Automatic annotation (TrEMBL):
Gene giving rise to this polypeptide: folD
Keyword terms, alphabetized: Amino-acid biosynthesis, Histidine biosynthesis, Hydrolase, Methionine biosynthesis, Multifunctional enzyme, NADP, One-carbon metabolism, Oxidoreductase, Purine biosynthesis
The protein's name: Bifunctional protein FolD
Protein EC: 1.5.1.5, 3.5.4.9
GO biological process entries: L-histidine biosynthetic process; methionine biosynthetic process; purine nucleotide biosynthetic process; tetrahydrofolate interconversion
SUPFAM superfamilies: Aminoacid dehydrogenase-like, N-terminal domain (SSF53223), NAD(P)-binding Rossmann-fold domains (SSF51735)
The protein's assembly and partners: Homodimer.
Organism lineage: Bacteria, Thermotogati, Deinococcota, Deinococci, Deinococcales
Amino acid sequence: MILAGPPAAQALLDEARTRAAALPRRPELHVIRLGEDPASVSYVSLKEKKALEVGLGSTVHALPSATSQAELLSLIERLNADPAVSGLLVQLPLPASIDSERVLNAISPEKDVDGFHPVNVGRLWTGAAALPPCTPAGVVRLLDYYGLPVAGQRVVIVGRSNIVGKPLAALLLARDATVTIAHSRTPDLAALTREADMVVAAAGSPHLITAEMIRPGAVVIDVGVNRVGQTKSGKAKLAGDVHPEVAEVAAALTPVPGGVGPMTVAHLIMNTVLAAERLQAGEQPSEPVEVELLA
Ligand code: NAD
């Protein structure tokens, strides 16, 4: 079975539309973008398009790349305090002159629709109400849409990043999966993946997962998006982390493109609605806390 993203993403967007319409005030997504990097411009316009499509408000703060960190932090502070703003994100990457971690930590956790703030990460791991990161939450929604069970499954996630691998492990653990996280230093990756009922590839390595690494009948989710050249018309040619031959052994596989990708933006819209629901029910945006890991 091919697990196509678009119908599952549409179901999520439809749910977001219905829940938004039930709120006293329209949820508002604010996106801050610095500079004119073409990929960032196109990601941000896709987010805006999807927000508008389901009846949310959308504001893009397009600032010059020379914007100082202090100016950026003061805009974030103003948007944190503005009750009309439900969700706020800063499009990455930021120019090297800016401390990205400091900027992301300045966003109020209640409006942090990317789910990257350490307070949301902590809430996610402790099972408290968190805004989850969009790609892993989108993967869970995709599994739900296709009726694929998670509880009791042995899942191997290949990749331990803060935006995909680790938060996905937290979400699947909360659904009673038995989760193993593999990474670039894992010896004999194939021995692990062959034991799994479900393999999630989020390594950023084209065609890393081959057919002999998959147990026949396993479910395979391909999060990878790798540019592997150009098409004749000059568009980027994309490959996932999973070799297409895996379709012959897996019970179900997500395509790239058109699998997990559409779920990510749909979940960003859902997070904006979730944030609006909580804020409009009277939850106060908390002061962002400075979090530092001690070396
Ligand atoms: P990352 O570079 O931050 O992390 C990659 C992880 O994979 C690391 O933990 C690394 O240890 C592991 N890894 C790398 N090579 C490996 C190997 N050969 N064997 C085992 N583990 C290996 O990447 P990321 O930000 O988590 O993104 C992962 C992939 O997912 C990328 O292709 C990215 O483009 C894609 N992605 C897609 C979406 C989407 O919406 N579809 C969203 C985010 C990321």
